[in-house]
Structures are given as structure tokens and as C-alpha cells.
Amino acid sequence: MQQNNHPATTPKLLNAAVIVAALGYFVDIYDLLLFGFVRVKSLRDLGFEGQALTDTGIALLNWQMAGMLLGGILWGVLGDKKGRVRVLYFSIFLYSIANILNGFASSATDYAIFRFIAGVGLAGELGAGITLVAESMPKEKRGYGTMLVATIGLSGALLAWIIDMFFPWRVCFFIGGGLGLLLLILRISVSESGMFRQMQQADHVSRGNFLSLFTNWNRFVRFLRCLLIGFPTWFVVGVLVTLAPEFGQAKGLTGITGGNAIAACYTGLILGDIASGLLSQYLRSRLKVMWIFLSLDVFAVAYYLAGGFATPAEFYFAHFLLGISVGFWVIFVTIGAEQFGTNLRATVATSVPNFARGMLVPIGASFKYLKDPAVTGSVISAAWIIGAVCLLIAFVSLIGMKETFEEDLNYVETI
Fold it and tell me: What is the pLDDT of residue 124?
């Protein structure tokens, strides 16, 4: 059951909430993707080579994603209990400090600890920012607001690519942490959402109750659908793109770098997010756009895995197409924010994208198992199997999902 409140006032499209959420996500993406850029050279600097380099890289990425799983719950609950703005700033502070410390890592153990802490911090920014923007915008324009946040934020990957080309890996981490602290020093004033303030005044409303997502069948199904439709994104980014050097080698290519692959993918992702956001506004539907882009993802993954690439440029173009195909990320996160009432919105909007990111832990473990010589013995075969499963799960989860484009968000869940 749901209880409706009165609608809040509606600000301009480009307001302080959109600006801070976008800049915070920009630094978030820089830090989140930086490991993919510096993975090889940083681990070689620490003494890893060959299979140990690949396996250690996957393990470190899993530690970061495990931190994001934990942070997705922590920040989401705090966002509904204490406010979206507090979480926005505290999460930026935590991942900034963690990345500065990461620049001092001297072993795989240090590296893992700092990636885990950074993961916890990185988990809070996007969900809090999207929730704040969605609650601060009229329903006719909130898709534009979340599109701006995602588009500007994803550009952080391109900055990380450029910084990686000119600076040692330790300095890259220092720069990322410094950017986050600089954003906090600027202290752009952001008002808490009116919907949250109204809910805060209602003493009888249960806020940020994460377990309530599992005590009601309707809420549980909504939450599960929101999570599972995002599965293909982190299969693409976490496996196909991050491990581009290994896939390039399997296709007979040399000189493939993770940094160039990520840059190509995120250039496509930026264009895809703009396209999906605008298409959603044009079609007045989130779900139609999800169907379109998941279908594009099927073709992009198949082209990447089955295609024969004569040059590195052709291979990088395949990464660009992969990025466009998973450009539904902004729609995916917006759907999560729109599916639940104000008292659970931050909990869901923060946990869903981070659970989707955190699913890279079992995806990575499954990939590592399947590519073993005793199983398939091939990174290509392993990726076919995992990709098919992830895409199938996403399509099935989308069937019967509630359309939220016209949804009035000013209500609370009765718990």
C-alpha cells in the first residue's frame, strides 16, 4: 500500500542538485574505472606477471565490488534515514580518501584493502544523487535531469584515460582523490529534497528499512526486477572491456590495452545514455527503451565475441558498440528510483546499481572457472556462456515490470 503526499515545488532543469550529483558522479566514475586503466602497469610494478597478473586483477576488482555491495546497503539506508544530501557528501569524502591511500599501496593486500574501502565510498554517490534529482524535478523533466547526471558523470572515464597516459599509476589515484576533496571544498549548496523533508516530519513512517524489501512479496519482486535488468552492464564492463587485453590476445591481436578499451566503451556509453534518455522522453516510457537497448546489447556482444578483427582499431570499435548498447544505465538507475516510495527510494536507488555492480563478483568467479583449461579452456567460450545467462536474466526480469515514466513519486511505502 502507498500513501500520497502533496507535490513539491519544481525547480529548473539545471539546478544545484543536478550539478553536484553530476560532478560527484564524474569523480565517482573516474575513481571506479581508474583501476581498469592502471591494472596492468600497477600490478607489474608490484611484481605480478602472466596468469598471476590476470588473477590478481580479477581478485582486486572483486574486492572493490564487494565494498560496493556493502556500501549499497549502508548508504541507501542512511539516505532514507538521514537524508540524500548527507550521503552524497559523505560518500564522496570516503572514496576520495581511499583513493589517495591507494596511491601508497605496496602489496596486493594493501591494494585490496584500499579498493574495498573505495568501493564502499563509491557505492553512495550515484544512488543518492539520482534520488535527489528525481525528487527535485517534475515528472515530465526528471528523465532529462538523470540523463545529465549520467552523461556528465560517465565523462569521468575519459578523464581517467587521459590522466593515465601522462602520469604514473600512483599519481592517478592521488588526482582522483584530490578531485573529490576539491568538490567538497567548493561546497556547492544543495537543499534536501522537499519529499524527504515532508516524510521526515511524519513520525509514523518507517524509513530506510532494508529488510522490508524482503518481507513483502510485491516489494521483493519489484526490487529483484530492478536489480536483474542491470546484469548485462557489468558483464560487459567488468569482463569484456576490463579484460580486453586477454580477449585481444585470444583473437590474435597484440598491443591491446585496457585503458583504450575502457575509453572506447565509455565514449559509446556517453552517447548511449544521451540517446536512451532522449528516447525515453520522446517515447514517454522507460521500459520500451530498456527493451530496445537490451536487444542492441545482444548484437553488440555477439559481434564482439564472434567477430574477427584484423586491427586493434577494429577491436576498439567493437568496445565502442558495446558501450552504446549498455547506454541504458541511466534508465536502469532511474527505474530503480521511480519504483519505490520516498521512505525506501534511496535504499533501493543506491543498493540496486551497486548490487548490479557487485554481481561482478560471482560473474568474475564464474568466468575464471569457465575459462580454466579443465572446463572450456577459452576466454571466448566462457564469455559466451556468461553473457547468454546475464542477458536472458535481464529480458525475463523486464517482462511484466511496471512503467514509471508518469509515476508521481511523492508517496511512501506502507510497511
Answer: 85
Q: In the prediction, which pLDDT does 2 show?
A: 47
Strand partners, 2: 413
In a domain, 1, yes or no: no
Asked if residue 40 lies in contact with residue 242, where contact means CB atoms within 8 angstroms, the answer is no
With CA atoms as reference, report the closest residue to 321 among 267, 360, 276. Answer: 267
66 inside domain: yes
Does residue 297 belong to any structural domain of this protein? yes
Give, in order, the Cα–Cα distances in Å from 96 to each of 28, 30, 121, 181: 9, 11, 8, 6
Angle at 228 between CA 74 and CA 292, to 5 degrees: 130
3-state secondary structure of 227: helix
Q: What would the 3-class secondary structure string for 145-187 be?
A: HHHHHHHHHHCHHHHHHHHHHHCCHHHHHHHHHHHHHHHHHHC
| Tally of CB atoms within 10 A around 271 | 16
CATH of the domain at 273: 1.20.1250.20
242 backbone dihedrals φ, ψ, rounded to 5°: -60, -35
Residue 295 CB neighbours (<10 A): 13
Strand partners, 3: 412
Q: Supply the range of the domain harboring residue 307.
A: 12-188+210-410
**Measured torsion, CA atoms of residues 289, 295, 301, 304, in degrees rounded to the nearest 10:** -90
CA proximity to 368, closest of 21, 29, 36, 59: 59
Helix axes 329-338, 142-154, angle to 10 degrees: 140
Instruction: Give the residue from 277, 261, 293 showing the smallest Cα distance to 391.
Output: 293
Question: What is the tally of structural domains in the chain?
Answer: 1
Taking the model in full, what pTM does it have?
Answer: 0.81
Q: Is residue 195 part of a domain?
A: no
Q: Provide the b/e sequence for 322-340 (b: ≥16 CB within 10 Å).
A: bbbbbbbbbbbbbbbbbbb
Tens digits of residue pLDDT in 17-34: 788 888 888 888 888 878
Neighbours of 317 (CB within 10 A): 16
Q: What is residue 3's three-state secondary structure?
A: strand
